[in-house]
C-alpha cells in the first residue's frame, strides 16, 4: 500500500454518487445565487449612483415588490425545493445493496473502525473497495461527532446512544481525507481520518490482514517491547489481538504498522513520531486522553520496535 | 444634504428664539413656549451620580443599553481578532486549544446574547417611545430593572474568563459535551448567565409591546405605525415565545451538571437530541430577533434619504410579522446532519425556503423606495446600502441550506461561518451602524463628521468582506469550523491568511468609527431638531429630546407625520389642552390598542433606586447559586421578593404585580 | 371592561373626552407574562413527552411504578377550587367592596397553602421510590412539579401581599385593578396544575 500523500478533501472534486450530487447542486445554486446577488447589488448601488438628482415619484410600487419580491423568488424557491427532494432521494439509498458493513465509533479524539463480518478492527483509516456501496453504522462512545469526507459524502453525526445508518460509494481509487465536523472538545481540530478506496482484490487482502491476530515478535528488541507493552500501562488501554493486551480505551493496535498516520492524522506513522507520541503525546496533541509514558530509553526503543512490527 | 447646523462654539443648547431660527422646528418652539418650563419641572430627575443610579428615563436607559452592548461587542470583537491571529498561519501557537475553545464559545455567546439583542433593545428603548409619540415606556421602573439585569448578567458571564472558567462548548453548547463531559464550571456559568439575562429580555419585551399597544399618539392607527415599531414589537413577541425553550434547556443543563439529573443522559432515559430541539427552537427565531429590528432601522433610514415614504408599506409590515411567525417552524434545518427522517428533512427544507419570501419583499420594497425617490448620500444611507449588499449574499447562501444534502455538506464548516456572519454582521451590525449614524444627532444633540463617517463605512465594508468572503471557500474545501489550528498543505492556508488580514482591516474600521463618534462628542456642532428632514415623530423633538419628549402630544395624521400638513401643527393646536400637555403631574397619554383613540392620562413613576436594589439582590442570588451556596441563594431570593413587595407597596399600581411574579 | 383606577383618573381630569376606556397597561403586561410562562411550561411538558416517547424501554425508565394518585389528585382539586373564592373576590372588588375582596383573596390563599402542604407531602412519599437523579422520569417529575410549586409559592406571596394591602391601606379603596391581575395569575396556576397533573401523574399510569 502506498503511503498517504496529498489527500483529496474538496467539494470540487467529487468521487462518489453522494458528493457528485452535492457538487452539482453547488454549481446550480451558485449560478442562481450569483445572478440574484448581481441583480440586487446592481440595483442597490445603481440607485445611489443614478438617483441622486432624480425626481421623487409617489406610489406604493406594490406590483414591482410583489413581482420581484414574491412571484419570481417563489418560482426559484420551488425549483430549489425540487432539487432538495431529488437530493434527499438520491442520497437515501445506494443504487444496489451494500456489500459490506463498517461500524464507525467516534471517540474523543479518534475514530474506531470495525468490520463486523470479518472481525477486523482498526482506527482512523477506513478501507473500502472501489465502486462498491458500503454500509456505515455510526455511533459515538462519548460526545457528538460528525463524519465528513468532503470528496465522498456529506456529514452525518455520531451520537451516543443512537446509531445512524448510512452508506458511501467511492468511484475512484485513492485516499480521501475526512474530519470530525461537530465540535467535540479540546482536540476537535485533530480528529481526522482517511477513506482509502482500493480495488476489490487489494481490499480483500487488506481486510484479511487486519482480521488476523497480531504477528508474534521475532527479534529480541521486539520481544522486549512485547513484554513492556503487555505488562505495562499500554495494555490497560490498548488491544493487540492475540496477546493479553485487551484495553478498550484507546485504538486497537493489532496492525498499527499498516497505518499511514498516527493520532487521528495528527502525525505521520514513523519511528521518530511514534516514539515522541509514546513518550509524551500531550506535547503533540495537548489534552488527548493518553498520559505521558515514563519509559526508560531502552524500553521505549523496544516498544517502538514491537509496534513497528505489527503489520 | 439638508443639514443646517448651528454655528459651532456655543456651550449650551440655547432654547431662545434665535436658536429656534437655527434649528428648532417652529411648531415645537411654540409648544415649548406654552408648556415647556412647567413640564421640565415636573419631569426633572435627580441630577448627578445619584440620578445616574435612579433614573427611569427611557432615553438614558436606551443610551446605556447601546453603550453597554457596544462594550460587549468590543470584548467579543477582540476575542475574534485573537482567534483570527491564531488561524493566520497553519499550526500557529498564539493561544492554546483550551483558550481558543473558550474564545469562540464566549465570542458567539457574547455577540448573540450580550451584544446583538441588547443593542436592539437600546434602539427600541430610545426610539420606540419617540416614534409613537409618548413620554416614556409603559413601565419605566421595569425598564430600569431590565437594563441593570442585562448589565449584571453580562458581567457575570464575562467574569468566567478571568476566573479561567469560561464556557468552552460553543455558543450552542451541545450535550453531552456540555454536560457530563465538561470538566470546568464554564457551562454552569453559561446556563445560569443566560437564565439571568432572560429575565431582562422578558421584562423588556413586555414593556416594549405594551408601550406600542397603549401609548401611541392619538391618530396613530395600526396603519400609521412606523415599520421600526412593528419590527420591535414583532421581535418582542418572538422573544416571549423563543426564550422559554432556551430557559427550559438551560434549567435542565444546570440541573444535570449540579444535581445529576438525567435529562440529557442516555443511560438514565434522557436524550441528547432533546437539547438540540429546545436550543434551536429558540436559536432560529433568535436570528430574526436580531435581524428584524435591524431591518426596521433600514426601513427608517431609506425613506428619509430617498425623500419619499417607504414603498409597499403594508407588505413590509406583513413580511415583518410573517417572518416572526415562520421563524418558529424552521429550527430543524440546523439539525440536518443529525440523521432525522427524510420526511422531517423535506418538511423543514420547505419551511426554510418559505422564510426567504418575506425577506424578498422587504428587499425589493427598499430598492423600489430608492428607485422612486431621490437618494441623498449620507453615511447612514451608505451603511444601509452596505446592508443590502451583504444581506443578499447571506440570504442566497441561506437558501442553499434548504437543499438538504448540500446543507449536510457545508454545515459545521467554514461555509456556514461565512453565511451567518453575512446574515448577522451584514443583517444586523451594518443596520445598527446605519442607525447610529442616522440617530446620533437625536441621541446626543451633536452632528457627526460625515466625510470621516463615510471613510469608516468604506473601511468596515472592505474589512468585513475580506474577512468573511474567503471563509465560503475554506468551507467548501473541507475546513470544519471550531478548529483551533490546521495543517499546511490542506489548501486552506491562503483563505485563512486573507480572512485574518481582513479582520485587522475590519478592526481598524471600527476604531475609525469609534473615532468619529468620539470626535463628535468632543466638538460642539449642535444638531438641529430634524437634521435629515426625517419622516417620523422622533424628529419632532429636541436634539437630544427633553425629558418629557413632547411638550404637546401631537395627533398623527399619516404614516409620515413630519411630512404631512397636519400632524406637526396639531402640537400648536393642542397646546392648551390638558390631556395633551399633562403639565400638572408626571403623566403620559394612554390610547386604545387598534385605533389609538384617547383613553386619558396615565400616572408615570418617578426616578427610584428600587430597580437597582432588586437587580443587585437577584445578582447575589445568582452568584450564590453559582458558588453552590444554596441557602444563601434562597435568602437572597427572599430579599428579591421583599424588594419587589416594597416596590409595590410604594405605589399600588398595576405594573408591579406582574413583577412580583417574575 | 372598565378599570376603576384608570376611570378615576379620567373623572379627575376635567379635559377628559368621552372616549371608551380600554384595557390597562397592567392587564396587557399580565397577559403577556402569562403567555411567556405558558410557553415555558409548554416547553417543559413537551420535553416530558419527547423523552417519554423516545424511551426505548419501560416508562419510568428504571421500571418503577407510576406515582400514587391520591395526594396529587386532592392537591390539584384544592388548587382549582380555590379559584372560586378568587373569582368571588375579584367580582366584589369591582363593586369596591374591600372586605369582600380581602375575604375572597384569603380564601384563595388558604387553598394555595393547602396545595403547597399536599405537594410537599407527595414529594416526601415519592422520594424513597424515585429521586431527582435516579432516571429521566424522576428528573422531569421533580423539575416540573418543582417549577409549578415555585410559581404557586410566588402566587401565595402575591395573595398575602394583596390581602395585607386590602386590609391596611387607604389606596385599597380602589382594589379592582390589583385584584384582577392577581386573580388572572391565580387562574393560570390552576390551568398549569391540571396540565402538570395529567402529564407527570396521570399519563404514566395510562
Automatic annotation (TrEMBL), chain A:
<dbReference type="InterPro" id="IPR009056">
    <property type="entry name" value="Cyt_c-like_dom"/>
</dbReference>
<keyword id="KW-0472">Membrane</keyword>
<keyword id="KW-0812">Transmembrane</keyword>
<dbReference type="InterPro" id="IPR034236">
    <property type="entry name" value="CuRO_CcO_Caa3_II"/>
</dbReference>
<dbReference type="InterPro" id="IPR014222">
    <property type="entry name" value="Cyt_c_oxidase_su2"/>
</dbReference>
<keyword id="KW-0408">Iron</keyword>
<comment type="function">
    <text>Subunits I and II form the functional core of the enzyme complex. Electrons originating in cytochrome c are transferred via heme a and Cu(A) to the binuclear center formed by heme a3 and Cu(B).</text>
</comment>
<dbReference type="InterPro" id="IPR002429">
    <property type="entry name" value="CcO_II-like_C"/>
</dbReference>
<dbReference type="InterPro" id="IPR001505">
    <property type="entry name" value="Copper_CuA"/>
</dbReference>
<keyword id="KW-0813">Transport</keyword>
<dbReference type="InterPro" id="IPR008972">
    <property type="entry name" value="Cupredoxin"/>
</dbReference>
<dbReference type="InterPro" id="IPR045187">
    <property type="entry name" value="CcO_II"/>
</dbReference>
<keyword id="KW-0349">Heme</keyword>
<keyword id="KW-1133">Transmembrane helix</keyword>
<dbReference type="Pfam" id="PF00034">
    <property type="entry name" value="Cytochrom_C"/>
</dbReference>
TrEMBL record, chain B:
<feature type="transmembrane region" description="Helical">
    <location>
        <begin position="346"/>
        <end position="368"/>
    </location>
</feature>
<keyword id="KW-1133">Transmembrane helix</keyword>
<comment type="pathway">
    <text>Energy metabolism; oxidative phosphorylation.</text>
</comment>
<comment type="function">
    <text>Cytochrome c oxidase is the component of the respiratory chain that catalyzes the reduction of oxygen to water. Subunits 1-3 form the functional core of the enzyme complex. CO I is the catalytic subunit of the enzyme. Electrons originating in cytochrome c are transferred via the copper A center of subunit 2 and heme A of subunit 1 to the bimetallic center formed by heme A3 and copper B.</text>
</comment>
<feature type="transmembrane region" description="Helical">
    <location>
        <begin position="494"/>
        <end position="518"/>
    </location>
</feature>
<keyword id="KW-1278">Translocase</keyword>
<feature type="transmembrane region" description="Helical">
    <location>
        <begin position="313"/>
        <end position="334"/>
    </location>
</feature>
<dbReference type="InterPro" id="IPR023616">
    <property type="entry name" value="Cyt_c_oxase-like_su1_dom"/>
</dbReference>
<feature type="transmembrane region" description="Helical">
    <location>
        <begin position="187"/>
        <end position="210"/>
    </location>
</feature>
<feature type="transmembrane region" description="Helical">
    <location>
        <begin position="103"/>
        <end position="132"/>
    </location>
</feature>
<keyword id="KW-0813">Transport</keyword>
<comment type="similarity">
    <text>Belongs to the heme-copper respiratory oxidase family.</text>
</comment>
<feature type="transmembrane region" description="Helical">
    <location>
        <begin position="144"/>
        <end position="167"/>
    </location>
</feature>
<feature type="transmembrane region" description="Helical">
    <location>
        <begin position="287"/>
        <end position="306"/>
    </location>
</feature>
<feature type="transmembrane region" description="Helical">
    <location>
        <begin position="612"/>
        <end position="645"/>
    </location>
</feature>
TrEMBL record, chain C:
<feature type="transmembrane region" description="Helical">
    <location>
        <begin position="179"/>
        <end position="202"/>
    </location>
</feature>
<feature type="transmembrane region" description="Helical">
    <location>
        <begin position="69"/>
        <end position="88"/>
    </location>
</feature>
<feature type="domain" description="Heme-copper oxidase subunit III family profile">
    <location>
        <begin position="1"/>
        <end position="205"/>
    </location>
</feature>
<dbReference type="Pfam" id="PF00510">
    <property type="entry name" value="COX3"/>
</dbReference>
<dbReference type="InterPro" id="IPR024791">
    <property type="entry name" value="Cyt_c/ubiquinol_Oxase_su3"/>
</dbReference>
<keyword id="KW-0472">Membrane</keyword>
<feature type="transmembrane region" description="Helical">
    <location>
        <begin position="27"/>
        <end position="49"/>
    </location>
</feature>
<keyword id="KW-1003">Cell membrane</keyword>
<feature type="transmembrane region" description="Helical">
    <location>
        <begin position="141"/>
        <end position="167"/>
    </location>
</feature>
<dbReference type="InterPro" id="IPR013833">
    <property type="entry name" value="Cyt_c_oxidase_su3_a-hlx"/>
</dbReference>
<keyword id="KW-0812">Transmembrane</keyword>
<dbReference type="InterPro" id="IPR000298">
    <property type="entry name" value="Cyt_c_oxidase-like_su3"/>
</dbReference>
<keyword id="KW-1133">Transmembrane helix</keyword>
<dbReference type="InterPro" id="IPR035973">
    <property type="entry name" value="Cyt_c_oxidase_su3-like_sf"/>
</dbReference>
<comment type="similarity">
    <text>Belongs to the cytochrome c oxidase subunit 3 family.</text>
</comment>
